[in-house]
Amino acid sequence: MLIGIDASRANRDHKSGTEWYSYYLIRWLAKLDSKNQYILYTDEPLKGGLIDLTTKQYIKSAKEEPIKFDKNGLQIIKSPFNNFRVKILKWPSKYFWTQGRLSLEMAFRRPDVLFVPAHCLPFIHPKNSIVTIHDIAYEKEKKYYEQEQMGPGGKKSRKILNFLVKIYTLGKYKATTIDYLKWSTEYTLKHAKKIITVSNYTKKDLVELYKINANKISVVYNGYNRELYKKINNKEKIEEILNKYGIAEPYLLYVGRIEKKKNIPSLIEAFAMMREKNFSIKEKLVLIGSASFGYDETQYQIREFDITDEIVLAGWIIEDDLPYIFNGASGFVFPSHYEGFGIPLLQAMASGIPIAASNTSSIPEVAAEAAVYFNPCDTEDMAKTMDRLINDLSLRNNLIEKGSKRIENFSWEKCARETKEIIINI
Fold first, then answer.
1. CATH top class, domain 2-141+184-223+412-424
2. Entry pTM
């Protein structure tokens, strides 16, 4: 069987949830399946942790020796994974690669099965197509998505794009992020043969909002990197990594995109409230993740609360350093209104630190008894819960113990095995 995988997200430099999901699934499928043939579709040469799927760099210039293909149109490469091939599908724009270039590839060279790890099925696709839908946050947090535009930034380009989208969808949709996500979800649910979700909560959302047959959806939980995320006792190494990013103990930790959709404004307000009410608390707040929508307002808010010295905006950091930052933390805080899963919850549990998290969406499903919960809409409740997380020793020990047991249910190997069974039995 020839299995095609959209590897464009897995090949990105700065990864978050869906990118890590795509990346680790590919890594583990390469380890677990030597029987079937795989082709990875990317928009640029493989890099980073995927580079060992080929033993040579790709051709970057037309003046160099051209890339060779076999009779099936697959790139000929030498790789320790002999059943893996890679095809670079170049596209003149950074927009609409899936619907444009990947669709074009499917029109002429279709695999037996196409697996898309992140939400969007191309217009043209094999009958046997599988798509993972991680969440439908745009349906639950509309106020944030409605402010986002998609496509080129120029006014003229946007008008043209908006006009074309309206014509294509008979006036139903515009060229906005929320409309694209709605359209792509509806299209995917209708045309994909099988849907994977990463939590029962997301499956429930899809069934209720889109009236899809529940039997079409399989739930496969995310995993985490067991080699990296674990209890680390090397205090000198932890201190070295913390110094690298300007972090000093003690601190509470948040990992994820720094944006309104992740409820960062409420987290900052609650943290300021906690520090104001309890002067004995010495913990700072470390926010790790890429700056996204509303980041400027986050910086302004920190200045307004006069807590610039108490909050560290570390930005995106390499994954090899992240386990040390987890291990140095007093606790982990996860304030989102909505999550399809929440991989950082697993990373925190594996690192042996207690968790305070929102009591909404899939978060209680994932963390179960390994977290103490708060109402994400109530900053006072959030502040009190963070205070307990820091100062209640009995609670801390209980959460750490529950986390060490809960984390045994998750791994990327398990995720890949279950996904592989869905693919080969389609």
1. alpha beta
2. 0.88
- Cβ atoms of 91 and 100 within 8 Å: the answer is yes
Quick one: tokens of 374?
Answer: 């708060």
What is the number of other CB atoms lying within 10 angstroms of the CB of residue 240? 12
In 3D space, the residue among 391, 224, 241, 225 whose CA is nearest the CA of residue 327 turns out to be 241
* Burial of 425 per CB tally in 10 Å (0-12, 13-18, 19+): exposed
Tens-level pLDDT at each residue, the chain (426 residues): 999 999 999 988 888 888 999 999 999 999 999 899 999 999 888 877 777 775 443 333 323 344 455 555 454 444 456 788 888 898 887 778 888 899 999 999 999 999 999 888 999 999 999 999 999 988 887 776 665 665 555 555 556 666 666 666 666 766 677 888 888 899 999 999 999 999 999 999 999 999 999 999 999 999 999 999 999 999 999 999 999 999 999 999 999 999 888 999 999 999 999 999 988 899 999 999 988 777 888 888 899 898 999 999 999 899 999 999 999 999 999 999 999 999 999 999 999 999 999 999 999 999 999 999 999 999 999 999 999 999 999 999 999 999 999 999 999 999 999 999 999 999
Specify whether the CB–CB gap between 291 and 258 falls below 8 A.
yes
Query: Could you give the 3-state DSSP secondary structure of residue 345?
Result: helix
Question: How far is 401 from 397, CA to CA, in rounded Å?
Answer: 6
Strand order in the sheet with 217-219: 84-88, 37-42, 2-6, 113-116, 129-133, 194-197, 217-219
Q: CA–CA separation, 181 vs 339, rounded Å? A: 16
Check: CB of residue 218 under 8 Å from CB of residue 403. no
Task: Could you please state the CATH topology (level 3) that the domain comprising 235-409 is classified under.
Answer: Rossmann fold (3.40.50)
Segments of the chain assigned to CATH 3.40.50.2000: 2-141+184-223+412-424, 235-409
Edge-to-edge strands, sheet with 371-374: 311-315, 284-288, 251-255, 331-334, 355-358, 371-374
Burial of 306 (0-12, 13-18, 19+ CB in 10 A): exposed
